[in-house]
Amino acid sequence: MSDIIQLLPDHVANQIAAGEVVQRPASVVKELLENAIDAGATNIKLLLKDAGKTLIQVIDDGKGMSATDARMCFERHATSKIQKAEDLFNLCTKGFRGEALASIAAIAHVELKTKEDNEELGSSIKIEGSKIVSQDFVSTSKGTSLAVKNLFYNIPARRNFLKSDTVETRHIVDEFQRVALAHPNISFLLHHNNNEVYHLKSSNLRKRIVAVFGSKMNEKLVPIDEQTDILNIEGFVAKPEFSKRKRGEQFFFVNDRFIKSSYLNHAVVNAFDGLLEQGAHPSYFLYLKVPANTIDINIHPTKTEIKFDNEKALYAMLRATVKHSLGQYNVAPVLDFNRDATLDTPYDFNAKQKSTSVPKISIDPNFNPFKEEEPKKNNFPFKREKQTDSWESLYTSTTVSHKENNQELFNNQEEVKTQKTFQIQRKYLLSSIKSGVVLINQSLAHQRVLYESFLESITVKEANSQQLLFPVKISFSSAEIEMIYTIKTELENAGFSFDEFTKDSVTIKGIPVSVTESKITIILEELLSDIDLEVPDASFSYFDIMAKSFAKTLSIKTGTLLSEKEQEGLVNDLFSCKEPTISPFGKSTFKTLTLNEIDNLFNN
Q1: With the CA atoms of 186, 187, 192 and 193 taken in that order, what torsion angle do they form, in degrees rounded to the nearest 10?
Q2: What secondary structure letter does DSSP report for 372?
Q3: Are 126 and 101 a contacting pair, CB within 8 Å?
Q4: Residue 76 resides in a domain
Q5: Which element (helix H / strand E) includes 78?
Q6: Is the Cα torsion angle 522, 525, 531, 534 positive or negative in sign?
Q7: What is the rounded end-to-end Cα distance, in angstroms, of the chain?
Q8: Domain stop point among 202, 229, 264
Q9: How far is 310 from 574, CA to CA, in rounded Å?
Q10: Chain-centre distance for alpha carbon 581
Q11: What's the pLDDT score for residue 546?
Q12: How many angstroms from the chain centroid is the CA of residue 242?
């Protein structure tokens, strides 16, 4: 039998490695920015075209590379960060595996220009699909400029998997923000399609957070600072009243490296216990310093997950530190045993020597408890139903008709006679039908009703807009402002009206008639989050995402008490929908239970 195992060619091995290292343009951005930081740069520029698909260029003023290093850096497993295996457990740099540049060069056109400070000329290298096309000496400034063009040009299947420019740009901005927040002492510049998105000057931590997320962020921040033998914590958490419905502004940094940790996140959320509304998430920017030999950052290819030696101790200290700061800055109630003596009753108080006034009691001498009073006017928007004389009348059947296309749900499109609906645990509605009973999830049912209503008003009808008496100014990050501006036309079709866009805020002067002013911020935040998770390549996709997002945000929530009329109205509206059986997100809105099925429950 002939041998079948063979070594892969380098260019094939690099393409395979690229599948692990380079998932999307944002992966390239992360690697290049981290290399610039490791090179000691104080000014870093990131230039993008077409969400990084056409161009990703990082220019830094770091120490640069020699001609030999410029060529060696594109070889597999070539790195200046480690010399031996033990170095993996004492890392102070970002990159260390030596796979990134080799993987990037295998799937793109790469141009590198670099020069060391003590050299007169620098080196220029051009690579296409792992093949070095040219290497020359050039006149260039100190530092490194690395341009990655036509990403995935030789792997069209991978390129087709990329999402829209809006989504890919958002991922790039996320990576850029993480690196910029971890290094406030470095100046960063981000240009996309020749438009300046961020210009972050070297500053302190608080100013950097405000520069990234807008001026309104400054008033939201509560400082965190705790120094111990095994852990140093500093940073900020946002006040509970500024919590959000999404997890966007949650950042952990360990030794200046962004990480994701559900375990540490739980510690922070636990510190906010009792201060957040249901479904709200706290915002935080927390920087942890631990000894390098107590963590392992080599457990995941993207290096965003870390293994700690003493997780339980870190959890307890993080929770206690956040909780202490919330109490120290009067954000959370605390037990204070140091009473203010000026508020106590003095010991020498003598009630007899103090003049006190007896409260007057007013009496109506004409009051007659047996006199019949005239009925007061009803202030309710609906007429109060007359009290029934007998309990049997509560079970009198009423007739409810539905659209033809949904009557088949109720005994072959015959007219359905239902009894009064009942709300169960403020979550479900129970209604009687001829064949048995129907159990409706009130939240999912309302989502379906709102979704079809919004979608029709956006795509078919001309959406009605209500003008605000006073325009509302809402703060967002620069990246979020850019995304809102991208879908401005679709939002206007939905009923929004905009007055002004700035780098960190948007002014709204009109909103859809079904939206209240207090819900504007929540709706836009939810919408931006939903767009991140979708692939909006066509305008209709934006409309569909908007309709789903609006329906999810404005729908009746579990725990809402509904009146009898509201219950019946929701049931009628649901079965007037085109697709009453499922919610906009594919979940069943109701379940029917026939008489035979009910009988079988008692025959077992």
Answers
A1: -140
A2: P
A3: no
A4: yes
A5: none
A6: negative
A7: 65
A8: 202
A9: 53
A10: 29
A11: 81
A12: 14
Q: What is the mean pLDDT of each run of 10 residues along the chain (604 residues)?
A: 72 63 88 91 95 95 90 75 53 61 90 92 91 91 94 87 84 93 95 91 94 87 89 92 79 90 90 83 92 73 73 90 85 53 45 55 69 52 44 40 48 47 90 87 93 80 79 84 83 86 87 83 82 56 80 88 89 90 90 88 80
Closest CA to 209 of 249, 248, 242: 249
- Cβ burial, residue 507 (10 Å; 0-12/13-18/19+): middle
Give domain status of residue 238, yes or no. Answer: yes
**pLDDT at res. 443:** 93
DSSP designation for 536: -
Q: Evaluate whether residue 379 is within a structural domain.
A: no
Q: Identify whether the C-beta of residue 409 lies closer than 8 Å to the C-beta of residue 425.
A: no
DSSP assignment of 115-166, as one string?
E-TT-SSEEEEEEETTEEEEEEEE---SEEEEEEESTTTT-HHHHHT---HH
Supply 456's token pair.
């029709």
Report the CATH number that the domain containing residue 65 is assigned in CATH: 3.30.565.10
pLDDT of residue 341: 46
Q: Are 79 and 222 in contact (CB under 8 A)?
A: no
pLDDT in tens, 276-335: 877 788 999 999 998 888 877 765 656 677 778 888 889 999 999 999 888 887 666 554
How many domains, the chain? 3
Phi-psi region of 559 (alpha: psi -120 to 50; beta: other; left: phi over 0): left
Q: What is the reported pLDDT for 412? A: 40
| CATH number of 276's domain | 3.30.230.10
Give domain status of residue 378, yes or no.
Answer: no
Last residue of a domain, one of 151, 184, 202: 202
Alpha-carbon torsion, ordered 518, 520, 523, 527, to 10 deg: -160
CA atoms of 538 and 502, how far apart (whole Å): 26
257 forms beta bridges with 254
Contacts (Cβ under 8 Å, ≥6 apart) of 472 = 507, 508, 509, 517, 520
Taken in order 229, 233, 239, 244, is the CA torsion positive or negative?
negative
Tokens of 59: 């220019």
d(CA 517, CA 519): 5
- Give me 320's structure tokens: 């206690």
| 564 and 452 in a common domain | yes
* Rounded distance between C-alpha atoms, residue 332 and residue 334, angstroms: 6
Angle at 215 between CA 214 and CA 221, to 5 degrees: 95
- What is residue 1's predicted lDDT score, i.e. its pLDDT? 56
The closest alpha carbon to 518, from 476, 561, 553, belongs to: 553
| Radius of gyration, alpha carbons of the chain | 32
- Cβ distance 444 to 579 under 8 Å? no
Exposure string for 237-264, b = 16+ CB within 10 A, e = fewer:
bbbbebbbbbebbbbbbbbebbbebeeb
Q: Using an 8 Å Cβ cutoff, are 46 and 29 in contact?
A: yes
Check: CB of residue 44 under 8 Å from CB of residue 59.
yes
